[in-house]
Specification:
By secondary structure, this protein is α/β, with parallel strands linked by helices. 51% of the residues lie in helices and 13% in strands.
């Protein structure tokens, strides 16, 4: 968590409601140097319930937070919970039940996306981020049955997974969960998603927030490939291909006229498909198809621009030989 004073109380309430009377639970709240009341709110909960503990993460990045928490955790099972979410009353029980029943190495559930604030724009972003056209093949956002997948949101693990496959890679500001799950699958492990495991995510509530989030998500795709040499799927680079093709055809048009025709056809096809999918996604919701379509555009373009910038800057940022992993594989540091 970082600067989550709006959400941390609801998140902790949703967790504590599931573990009433249980002493075999610890809740480690790892704070990434918040500048608001987030740590103070956690301390208030810790004063009332000793199972709640505050852990400082001065590095502020998620993989370091996870490794700190795993290193301190005493339990047989590790469940990652992000603060920007609320969890169903049976979330923990269902995670453990699916983990035991399937024999998987990591399990998770489908996300219901809600607006971060109840505004027309916030609702349109939530609809766009729940659409397959908006987020591609991200199964945990679009729904489905119990199945093996390449990644799940957050995750529930047996502790020995981190001994067998290693800890989170602290070089990755983003995509660290995707990379870990890729490493698990390459090592013969299994990732399972189940509709029995339910959680709610509160999305960005403004277009500027959506653009910023999408840009950095896209940026870290080339960075991840540069650092670890894999871990992502082709779908993660579709926005990059779209943005790059628009820029190349636009420039080529000054030298070769038919490039303008190809550019117009490509943009036209996107507008037609995006409008149709926005209309379908907006049906039965309290938002408009036009705003959902605007959310699609900003999500895809910002993501693609971020990826393009990542391609151009990866060698400058990380050099030809990226820094080695921090800490020993399988260690708690």
């Amino acid at each position: 968590m970082r600067n989550e004073e709006v959400f941390v109380g609801g998140c902790l309430d949703s967790v504590l409601a599931q573990v009433e009377g249980r002493e075999d639970i610890e809740i480690l709240c790892v704070d990434g140097a918040s500048e608001d009341r987030t740590p103070d709110i956690v301390r208030e909960y810790a004063d009332r319930d000793p199972r709640v503990k505050l852990v400082d993460n001065p590095d502020r990045i998620v993989p370091r937070a996870m490794n700190l928490a795993i290193g301190r955790a005493c339990g047989e099972f590790i469940i990652r919970l992000d603060c920007h979410c609320n969890y169903a009353l049976d979330y923990i029980d269902k995670c453990l039940e699916v983990l035991e029943r399937t024999g998987a190495d990591n399990v998770g559930g489908y996300v219901t996306t809600l607006p971060g604030s109840d505004s027309l724009v916030g609702r349109s972003i939530a609809v766009a981020c729940s659409s397959r056209f908006g987020v591609g093949g991200s199964a945990f956002r679009t729904g489905g049955g119990e199945q093996e997948v390449d990644t799940v949101p957050f995750g529930c693990f047996c502790r020995d997974v981190f001994d067998r496959f290693g800890m989170y890679d602290e070089r990755l500001v983003r995509n660290q969960d995707i990379e870990l799950n890729s490493r698990i699958r390459k090592g013969g492990g299994r990732i399972v998603i189940s509709p029995e495991i339910k959680l709610t995510y509160f999305n960005r509530s403004s277009f500027s927030g959506l653009r910023q989030q999408a840009f950095y998500n896209g940026l870290w795709n080339p960075y991840t490939i540069w650092i670890v040499g894999g871990g992502l799927r082709i779908r993660h680079f579709v926005p990059l291909a779209f943005v790059t093709s628009v820029l190349l055809l636009g420039c080529l048009g000054f030298l070769w006229g038919p490039a303008w025709v190809l550019l117009g056809c490509g943009i036209g096809a996107y507008v037609v498909a995006g409008s149709a999918m926005a209309a379908k996604a907006a049906q039965g919701t309290s938002t408009s198809a036009f705003l959902v379509f605007l959310a699609f555009i900003q999500l895809h373009v910002a993501y693609g621009v971020g990826s393009l910038w990542g391609v151009l800057t990866a060698p400058l940022r990380f050099g030809l030989q990226p820094a080695p992993k921090r800490g020993r594989i399988g260690s708690g540091a």
